[in-house]
Design a protein that fits this description.
about 110 residues, elongated
Length: about 110
């Protein structure tokens, strides 16, 4: 079970790097309007935070024999979970409230 969990964290981290790249390319080609600029900023902040937190978890996992690293590892994973949830919430708001990346952009 530990091996499967570690695999999922590694796989998710590398997939997140691809996702960040695609998201960055989308933002470059997007007309950012003032009405959703703040929400887009939060979405990007939480997305970068998620990758950073899970990258830190991968590093901490290497020191798992030490108690401090094991505690920090689990704390970083929990923070990463909340960062993913916040990223998804902000992304959902961008799509459903503001119509970003849809054919029905609200004015």
């Amino acid at each position: 079970m530990q091996v499967a969990g570690q695999f999922n964290i590694r796989f998710g981290f590398w997939c997140a790097l691809v996702t960040l790249s695609v998201g960055f390319l989308a933002v470059i080609n997007m007309e950012v309007k003032d009405k959703f600029r703040e929400m887009l900023g939060y979405h990007m902040l939480f997305a970068f935070s998620t990758v950073t937190l899970f990258g830190a978890a991968l590093i901490l996992y290497r020191f798992r024999q030490k108690t401090w690293a094991r505690v920090m590892y689990h704390l970083v994973l929990v923070c990463g979970l909340f960062s993913i949830l916040a990223t998804g919430y902000c992304g959902g708001e961008l799509v459903h409230r503001f119509g970003v990346a849809t054919l029905h952009l609200t004015d």
